[in-house]
Design brief:
It is a single chain. By secondary structure, this protein is of the alpha/beta class. Helix content is 41%, strand content 18%. The chain has 18 helices and 19 strands. The longest helix is centred in the middle third of the chain and has 19 residues. It is globular. It binds 2-acetamido-2-deoxy-6-O-phosphono-alpha-D-glucopyranose and magnesium ion.
Length: 540
């Protein structure tokens, strides 16, 4: 069975594992966002993720796997870890169960047994090469977790490279670059510098000949996005872009995501703390690891207007649809949303733009996969995570297209540069920022013109603590409850009473609670519907 090399690896794992003991009484689960909880509880988890990353790479013939240490928009004391698959995608879902098993192994001995069991059941040769790259965000617990990760990788005899501090999407980019380097379509240079150069060049081409955009102010949530955005702007050059980065105090670790950032602005529907915006100027907020972005502005009356993921998706779909029509290339653009997408956005997309929409359950992996089915798939969650994927066949069609006139040629060139500008691996706040600025500059639109495309239906999200959230089972992309039995009929009866009413209930994937979403024609009605549906959950 196990040869001497394997034996040595197993004894190394057992030895190193004693340095990273699992806290008593703690259970872990690899969920939609990987492992995420207090940084002080993650040492053993990150060590074990190192082992799993090595196995994953070996299973995929030594392709490079990424490990990102971040807790995104969570408070400063939290941290988290997730794996990135070779094409820069989220870890394949079947492996989430192995991650959970590794994290929960009670003893060092049990851990080595799990390790060997996964290797044997998946036919993994433990002597074969394993390659892993990793990075972290700016959290104080990051360096110690990196040390634990390195121990895991060394115990599992993996080769690794430390990319230090990066945004999550930058690491996704680097993973894809490494694994496509020797193919016919290399994604880019596998470095932070390569990322900036690729985006900067694409932005310069996309906006060539257009008026220089107005200055945009970006709240970086006091996270990793701040310094990275400044670096990106430096590469683009002030001839093309003026960005004013605020909330960029990465050394004041306690300020991370505190009353600022994309999640705060979207959920509170208000400005970051202390921001005093000039009317009709464009503002944006990133989250703590810069994979989400929302935009906003205030009007003359200082009223706050949010331009969220749905507005970004609609803007991108409109622009790309029009470019495809101009180019004469036979391609279909489609949009992927979740149940949280505002009803007005879905109506705008299907009735006005006439683009097909797919609705998937919450979670990036679902949206990502569904959008791969379109030639050009635009996906965004309302919370501001999203991107636009160009399929291989769409890229080939664009690259080989013989334009009949300068208009077609221009449109094709712009589409190809967009494909380079937009991160093809995952939602990327920096790349999405440039995309939006580029489109607004093509249209000569300010934020209020963009906002006019459609008017959001008032909506309300309520978090309800229940006895057992796993009792809430849904179908139809989370829009209908099948269990608890009878509840959906009661929700439907309430919804019917409201003009443009819509409501659904689903269990959170990240918190021990269920979420109630309601929208209706007026603010009052949306609030009322949300309260009434929440009331149905009392005692459950
Ligand atoms: C995770 C998901 C995000 C989703 C959120 C919903 C990824 C990388 N992240 O953060 O897409 O919107 O969960 O949270 O998939 P909830 O299940 O608590 O509502
Ligand atoms: Mg994030």
């Amino acid at each position: 069975m196990a040869d001497s090399n394997t034996q040595q690896q197993l004894s190394q794992i057992a030895k190193f594992s004693t340095l990273h003991p699992r806290p008593d009484g703690q259970t872990y689960a690899y969920g939609t966002a990987g492992f995420r909880l207090l940084g002080s509880l993650l040492d053993s988890v990150v060590f074990r993720v190192g082992l799993l990353a090595a196995l994953r790479s070996r299973k995929l013939d030594g392709e490079t796997i990424g490990v990102m240490i971040t807790a995104s928009h969570n408070p400063p004391d939290d941290n988290g870890v997730k794996l990135i698959d070779p094409q820069g995608e989220m870890l394949e879902a079947t492996w989430e169960a192995y991650a959970t098993k590794f994290a929960n192994a009670e003893t060092d001995d049990e851990l080595t047994k799990e390790y060997l069991a996964v290797a044997e059941s998946l036919n993994i040769n433990l002597d074969s090469p394993a390659n892993v790259v990793f990075a972290r965000d700016t959290r104080a617990s990051g360096p110690a977790l990196v040390a634990a990760l390195k121990d895991g990788l060394e115990a599992a005899a993996a080769e690794y490279a430390d990319y230090r501090i990066l945004t999550t999407p930058q690491l996704h980019y680097i993973v894809k670059c490494i694994n496509t380097a020797k193919t016919a379509t290399p994604y880019g240079h596998p470095s932070e510098q390569g990322y900036y150069e690729k985006l900067a060049t694409a932005f310069q081409i996309v906006t060539k000949g257009k008026p220089k955009p107005h200055v945009i102010t970006v709240d970086a949530a006091n996270g990793v996005g701040g310094p990275k955005l400044k670096e990106l702007a430096r590469h683009i050059g002030s001839d093309y872009l003026d960005v004013n980065v605020v909330k960029d105090e990465i050394d004041a670790v306690e300020k991370l995501n505190y009353q600022c950032g994309a999640d705060f602005v979207k959920t509170q529907q208000k400005l970051p703390l202390g921001l005093q915006p000039a009317p009709y100027e464009l503002y944006a907020s990133l989250d703590g690891d810069a994979d989400r972005i929302v935009f906003y502005y205030v009007d003359d009356a200082k009223k706050f207007h949010l331009l969220d993921g749905d507005k970004i998706a609609s803007l991108a779909a409109m622009f790309i649809r029009d470019l495809i029509a101009l180019s004469g290339v036979d391609l279909q653009v489609g949009v992927v949303q979740t149940a949280y997408a505002n009803g007005s956005s879905s109506k705008y997309l299907s009735d006005i733009l006439q683009v097909p929409i797919t609705v998937t359950p919450t979670g990036v992996k679902h949206l990502h996969h569904a959008s791969q089915l379109f030639d050009v798939g635009v996906y965004f969650e309302a919370n501001g995570h999203g991107t636009v994927l160009f399929s291989n066949s769409a890229m080939k069609a664009l690259e080989s297209f013989e334009a009949q006139n300068p208009g077609q040629q221009d449109a094709v060139a712009t589409l190809l540069s967009l494909a380079a500008l937009i991160n093809q691996t995952v939602g990327d706040a920096l790349s999405d920022l440039l995309l939006v600025i580029a489109i607004l500059s093509h249209k000569a639109w300010g934020p209020s013109e963009w906002n006019l495309t459609y008017t959001d239906l008032p909506n309300r999200l309520v978090r309800v603590v229940v006895r057992d959230r796993t009792a809430f089972k849904t179908e139809d992309a989370e829009r209908k409850l099948v269990e608890p039995k009878g509840l959906q009929a009661e929700i439907d009866a309430l919804v019917k009473k409201y003009k443009s009413g819509r409501s659904f209930v689903r269990a959170s994937g990240t918190e021990d609670a269920v979420r109630v979403y309601a929208e209706a024609a007026t603010r009052l009605e949306a609030d009322e519907l949300a309260v009434k549906v929440s009331d149905l959950l009392k005692g459950l």
